[in-house]
């Protein structure tokens, strides 16, 4: 499977598994799972044909590890980033003292005023390393990296969870717990 096709299938999977399963006529269960065979058949009917081998390739090679199979390989879901309601069943976890959030310079004034909010997603997404935050910020324009005082938030009672692909999730981050970091 060439890189262009891999990216195309991956982006379509993100749409279906994170935001609009109805686009191909599938429903996610409460944990965000859908049967692989059902997904492939529904995508085929919607004119977005790919094989199980191609799906396996996308899951295995996605640099952000966006997708995961159930232990038996029968179901698939997005690891995080949903705008549709799902419960990923992630246990609360103590965060590192500092986490990072990548964004673009255009959104910085609003974030510094209101803090980090999930917006259309279920959670605020944070990374454990600066490099990932820079990559995320670059997707939206000139990158800005914010340091998040995760230890302080946890001490205040904020709950953190970590997804299967290492993204840290929380409900919000108030402006007082943010600090801009030079990129």
From TrEMBL:
In which domain of life is the source organism classified? Answer: Bacteria
Protein's UniProt keywords contain Cell wall biogenesis/degradation: no
Task: Report a single Gene Ontology molecular function.
Answer: transferase activity
Q: Which Pfam families match?
A: PTS_2-RNA (PF01885)
Tell me which positions the record assigns to the signal sequence. Answer: none
Keyword match NAD: yes
**Enzyme class, one word?**
transferase
Kindly state which keywords UniProt assigns to this record, in alphabetical order: NAD, Transferase
What's the EC number here?
2.7.1.-
Q: What does this protein do?
A: Removes the 2'-phosphate from RNA via an intermediate in which the phosphate is ADP-ribosylated by NAD followed by a presumed transesterification to release the RNA and generate ADP-ribose 1''-2''-cyclic phosphate (APPR>P). May function as an ADP-ribosylase.
**Family statement drawn from the similarity comment of this UniProt entry:** Belongs to the KptA/TPT1 family.
Alphabetical list of HAMAP family matching this protein: KptA
Listed name of the protein: Probable RNA 2'-phosphotransferase
Species of the source: Streptomyces fildesensis
């Amino acid at each position: 499977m060439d890189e262009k096709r891999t990216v195309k299938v991956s982006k379509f999977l993100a749409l279906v598994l994170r935001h609009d399963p109805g686009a191909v006529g599938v429903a996610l269960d409460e944990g965000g799972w859908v049967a692989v065979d059902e997904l492939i058949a529904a995508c085929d009917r919607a004119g977005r044909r790919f094989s199980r081998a191609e799906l396996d390739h996308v899951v295995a090679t996605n640099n952000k590890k966006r997708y995961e199979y159930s232990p038996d390989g029968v179901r698939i879901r997005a690891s995080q980033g949903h705008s549709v309601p799902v419960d990923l069943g992630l246990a609360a976890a103590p965060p590192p003292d500092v986490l990072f959030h990548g964004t673009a310079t255009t959104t910085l004034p609003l974030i510094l005023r209101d803090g980090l909010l999930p917006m259309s997603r279920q959670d605020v997404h944070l990374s454990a390393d600066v490099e990932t935050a820079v990559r995320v910020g670059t997707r939206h324009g000139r990158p800005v990296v914010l340091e998040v005082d995760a230890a302080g938030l946890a001490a205040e009672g904020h709950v953190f969870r970590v997804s299967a692909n290492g993204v840290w999730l929380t409900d919000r981050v108030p402006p007082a717990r943010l600090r801009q970091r030079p990129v």
